[in-house]
User: What shape does this take?
Amino acid sequence: MEALSHLWHGFSVALSPINLMYCAIGSLVGTLVGVLPGLGSTATIAILLPVLSGLPPATAIIALAGIYYGAMYGGSTTAILINTPGEAASVITAADGYAMARQGRAGPALGMAAVSSFVAGTLSLFGLVLLAPPLADAALEFGPAERFALMVLGLSMVISLAGKSLLKGLLSGLAGLLVGMVGLDPMTGVPRFTLGSPTLLGGIDFISVIVGLFAIAEIFVNVQEQTRRVYEGKLKGLLPTRKDLRDCAGAMGRSTIVGFLLGLLPGVTPAVASFLGYDMEKKFARDPSRFGRGAIEGVAAAEGANNSATSGGLVPLFTLGIPTTPALAVLLGGLMIYGLQPGPLLFEQHADFVWPVIASMYVGNVMLLILNLPLVGLWAKLTQVPYPILSAGILGVCVIGTYGVRNNVFDVWMMVAFGVVGFLMKRWDVPAVPLVIALVLSEPLETSLRQALKISGGSLMIFTRPLSLAILLLALASFGVSLYSRAKEGRLAVAIEAGGEDVG
Amino acid sequence: MVVRSEAVTAGFIGIALGVVSLAQARDFPIFVRGVPQEGFMPLLIGGALVIVGTGLLAGGLLRGQKTPGPAVAVPRRTLYLVSLVVVYVFLLEIVGFFLSTWILCTGTIKAWRRYGWPAALLYGGSLSLLLHLCFSSWMKMPLPRPFWA
Assistant: This one.
């Protein structure tokens, strides 16, 4: 009850005109940042931190948090409209979102992304308020072995997202792990796969890979097919229908819970949470084959998990001073600049700071919904722009975004190279999403595995701890279910072809 | 050039990547007193890639013997656009962002053969100018400059 009264006070501060204004500015800037690949929320928060340092601490952090949330939404906008994820967390949104745009349903996809983010933000706010301290303690139970198990669970998605060919999906995933190893060894700092080049010491930037694999490859495919527009014909509705909202209610609820719980864990970024939330929803679906072909539940699940993981990440940040994502690490730096020490005492000693920030998260969510829903129609019209002109613009923006990461033309070269790779992958029916998932997980997976084995002195018994064993068994079960479904589909296809009875 | 089986090609690529990873693993220690070192993951991933690549290759060859895949023509328009983008990246740090992007946008629009040169140049120039004004002038993002600047 005390928490609720603190929250009420927090709202009264967050809704002050000056804080509302900075929240709005932050949300707008964040949305723009998220739309542009390469201009991540991390870099933007880092750049603006000194600029905002003259403001009262709560106001500055409210603005920065608005950027963080806005970037999440902005990334999903371009993922849906033009298959160009602006952030890692939007990659899986593109799977169904872009398919919906090609079916003339860009508006409902964008609307559902906004609604799902809002619902997830609202529900996870309650989680944050009511469950923060005990959840923070539970998160401490997650050691390297448990984190490794969680990464394996994430990689098990490679199977479910592998499409028709399991081996091609595995090839894509393993290639992603390989690409992730380029650069410095995460534990010892020794260069690997750098070919003696100082440029490769920094590794291959993730943004170059996703922009190349998705946006550039898409343009390479469309130029061959001489695509005239993303969608030809009249747009089918600009907002989700009541049926869409009913169909997605379960997806929103489940993905919120999954995303929030995963967001509590260090090393689990909103991107990973969105992958796992999507995969779980696909398993719950009556017809999983719809996913990846324009299932609105896929958009709802990905965005819900993404947004709630963002809120969940605030729990270890405030209660333990542990940032779960790079952007939150910069935010932590911001807290320290203001002399605020994260930890259990933060809530007691600086309640006048913490609760307005938490309240502003919700206000930011509402603001994003209010600002972006009316713009859905405008965004959806982008799908009607003649594709030659649209593709030229996309190429220009992609180059800017990729170059802007490290001000290095090498990253642009990587973007082009992965554009070619992505084009060939599409031609050869090799799924690109497993490569991206594996790339995201490569470093934390290796770090967790080696840390766990270091702690146990090389013994694998460390993975028999209850939590890690349970997660590994879940990953195995997920793998088994996917294999079984694939085998069943294969037998059914053979039976249909032969004109025989269903052997499933 | 005709590609008969994408599985065979993907298989070869998988094996090649695996060999590269295994070669790198040789340069580092794998375990020291039971603790995995820098060569551990390259060894693991390399081995897995070789296995998966071999599986793809074998499957593709077996399927190819039963039902050869369709012939796939060289995608000329895509090759044109890839070449254009490569030239563009070369030009970026020579003539700067604005001019090179104008060339890229014009060439991209022309790839669709729906617009004449005047329209393509106009649209391309407008897009390039818009991007330059938005990102370089307004947002002060450092973009590549021409060598004479």
In short: Chain B has a mean pLDDT of 85.
